[in-house]
Write a structure and sequence with these properties.
The chain has 349 residues and is an alpha/beta fold. The chain has helices spanning 11-16, 33-41, 57-74, 95-107, 111-114, 128-135, 148-157, 180-190, 204-212, 222-225, 235-243, 265-274, 281-296, 321-341; strands at 22-24, 46-49, 79-84, 117-123, 140-145, 161-165, 171-172, 195-198, 217-220, 249-253, 258-262. The structure holds flavin mononucleotide (FMN). Flavin mononucleotide binds next to strand 3, strand 7 and helix 10.
């Protein structure tokens, strides 16, 4: 893929052969096949996520394989799969994490899949337990962190790219709140590997800000929910992002750490359930999954759990990915140029 318009140098782009240093991040636990394919087709890196956690492992692995194969039918460009590697209350990595990493590692044994499925993004915990099986493949390993110590640890374990995701991000966020403007430069200065910045990116100026901090690429979650290409989800969700106002989000403890979501009936019920000692981990997972699916598939953004980033307060439209992506990058370039133009050696009072 080539364009004559100016674009941005990025190690991620060079390694994957993608045009724009823009990642559509994991938006689980439901299907994002059409969205991921659209983002990859438009020159960014689309990401699939794992299916609902309530599926038995074999069934879940089969569904993920279907998502992967379906995406391969829709794009011949590189794409990623996100697997959260959270830790349960017993301190062990959640069993589904191993299942899904194995499913991804197994899928890339097929050369037709390996030509497209080029990246695995782990998140929500430390990648230690799954690192060696990923290292045995040609997959680029990106790992999402919310703190500099986690980034250094992931680098020491051999991950290829760090995703520094600030606390304002939608969905599972981090136990210790460090926001993008603090986290991104800290991580960028601490590690030697490329850093993708996530949390609060929605347009040219926010992308330019991340690049000015030294980001190799940016990752967006909430902005991509509000696209016409997010066809696997109910359109109510995109409307909820578009209509969201500052302060309408809340973070609630959810399965493996705090999650930022719409402050609605579902979020309030989840907070109440967290106070109950009689509910097992499995019962809580089932309840939360059902409410996530209610929002994502059925469009119930009142009683459903609807992860959303604070960035939604600056999103006022529902866009087409193919139009949005080149515009995002062109606007970021324009902001960087305008900013450089402000540099002057003349003193004026
Ligand atoms: C609806 C939704 C679902 C998400 N699900 C996941 C997930 O399954 N795995 C994950 O690592 N991050 C998940 N996230 C976080 C995103 O991958 C991304 O890091 C975040 O949205 C970036 O910040 P932004 O929302 O400000 O763009 C989710 C975010 C949203 C909005």
């Amino acid at each position: 893929m080539s364009v004559s318009a100016p674009t941005l140098r990025s190690e991620l782009c060079a390694r994957l052969g993608i045009l724009y240093p823009v990642v559509q991040e994991g938006l689980g636990p439901y299907k994002t096949v059409h969205l991921a394919a659209s983002v990859s087709n438009a020159g960014g890196l689309g990401t699939l996520c794992i299916p609902p956690l309530t599926l038995p492992p074999d069934e879940g692995a089969r569904v993920l394989r279907e998502y992967i194969e379906e995406t391969c039918q829709l794009t011949d460009r590189p794409f990623a799969v996100n697997v959260p590697v959270g830790v349960g209350s017993d301190g062990q990595m959640l069993p589904f994490s191993r299942t899904y990493v194995d499913a991804v590692v197994g899928a890339v044994k097929d050369p037709a899949i390996a030509a497209r499925l080029r990246v695995i993004t782990t998140s929500a915990g430390a990648p230690s337990a799954v690192r060696s099986s990923i290292a045995d493949t040609d997959l680029l390993h990106m790992h999402k962190v919310g703190g500099t110590r986690q980034a250094l640890r992931a680098q020491a374990e051999g991950v290829d790219v760090s995703v520094a995701s600030g606390y304002e991000a939608g969905g599972h966020t981090h136990a210790r709140p460090v926001h993008t403007m603090v986290l991104a430069p800290n991580v960028i200065q601490a590690v030697d590997i490329p850093v993708v910045v996530a949390g609060g990116i929605r347009d040219g100026s926010t992308m330019a800000a991340a690049l000015a901090l030294g980001a190799d690429a940016v990752a967006l979650g909430t902005r991509f929910v509000a696209t016409t290409d997010n066809r696997d989800w109910h359109p109510n969700y995109a409307c909820a992002v578009r209509d969201f106002k500052e302060g309408e989000d809340v973070t609630v403890q959810a399965i493996y750490g705090p999650s930022r979501m719409l402050d609605n009936e579902g979020a309030r019920e989840l907070s109440e359930l967290n106070e109950r000692a009689d509910l097992s981990h499995d019962a809580m997972t089932a309840w939360k999954d059902e409410r996530l699916i209610a929002a994502q598939r059925d469009g119930d953004v009142v009683r459903g759990i609807a992860p959303i980033g604070q960035v939604a307060s600056g999103i006022h439209d529902i866009v087409d990915v193919a139009e949005f992506l080149p515009r995002l990058v062109a606007d970021a370039i324009e902001v960087l140029r305008r900013t450089a133009d402000r540099v002057t050696s003349q003193q004026s009072v």
